[in-house]
Amino acid sequence: MVKLSDVNAKLLKAHYAVRGKIVIRAQELEGQGRKVIYCNIGNPQALKQRPITFVRQVLSLLEYPALMDAPGMDKLFPADVMARARMILEKNPTGTGAYTQSAGIPFIRQAVADFIARRDGIPADPNRVLLTDGASKGVQAVFTLLTNKPNDGYMIPIPQYPLYSATIDLYGARQVNYFLDEKNNWQLNEHELERSLAEGRANGVNPVAIAVINPGNPTGAVLSKENIRMIIRFARANKLAILADEVYQENVYGAGLKFHSFAQVMHELGEKEVTLFSFHSVSKGFLGECGHRGGYLEIRNMSDEVYAEMIKLQSIGLCSNTDGQIVTYLMVDPPKPGDESWPLYEKERNAILGDLKEKAEILGRGLSEIEGMHTHIPQGAMYAFVRFDLPHPKGIDPETMSADERHKYEAARDSKYCLRLLEDTGICVVPGSGFGQQPGTLHFRTTFLPPKADILALVEKMKRFHAAYVEKIKSAV
After folding, report:
1. Is 29 part of any domain?
2. To which H or E segment does residue 442 belong?
3. Whole domain around residue 270: which residue ranges?
């Protein structure tokens, strides 16, 4: 029997907070009949978001093509859906059950390049597009490519999406933290980047890339174009590749804000030296097709011989799943005005994004009104990273602790808070320590994906819970 001591030490070191102990406890409580409001993970359809009809109709026909020749199907499926399914079968005649080319089905890679060109007004090369099992597999592929020596490191945002820290641990690389500027809507700060880089190098780390999440997870921030320009200049000056996690590009709610891709800004700057890896996914936006595990990785400023290694890496895994590739195609080439399926598609899209915007405002305003809680109305993505204040128990002074002691103390505090929140209210959120946070602060990440009634209930329950929790600590002092 394999023992824990036999397990890869890199795996034992890795942590993934959004599916951690608190979520396991939530599932236990749900099994006991308790109502749980799951706000721990960006999994839209698990939280009652309905699939986009167009996507499911096309997939239905592709999974069982005989439907297209059955009587009455022209009344059940719009004409453009039938035409789209036939076209896909013509271009991919082996169907959804066969392997594809390692990099992905060629016409879909072309469609991704066309999408980027339309979105950004810049050229895009389909021969630098790889179709992946969600954005996560693309990120892991880049880590495999770039991690060459034991001291190679990656600059990652704090707070961050724990895919990055977990992958760094799994691949035996080094983590170099840079703190996002909470007081400035979680933008990146150039002085902080310089500090982080210098500290990493002083600790013997060789930083090879910087990861940026825009719009932000867990912060919900949308980066300005000037902030992105600064990051690109910083990467060039320090010979870093850029990993641009852009899976929430459709999720922008703040008035006057706009998503700017790193590819577009890099093109405007005429940047030819910095290698850019851009990731997108069908799991977020308004599709919420997490289970289909589709996405793409676009690469810029990479030589043919290095790109050949990426193709080799893809071939080792054979290919990404075919249905995920199809959904990626439907994401980047949706119905157009004049198509029979267009009115319903546009109605469903606008309803989902409008609902998310409304729930972001309810959550942000409601939680910021609670004494001892601090958050902005999320500008994008699907999350808020909420700071909360707690008094210290009698005899505890964090200022006298070492950095390691303080980290453990604060991680225990926010974990205990979130577990008690779950036990008392049924609200499942993730402790801020699972994403990283400035020393001396406590946070939790919550989504605003559940139905509006649940978000309203969350705000009211949180008000009562937080006041009672703080009072209990005070009374024990």
Report:
1. yes
2. none
3. 106-332
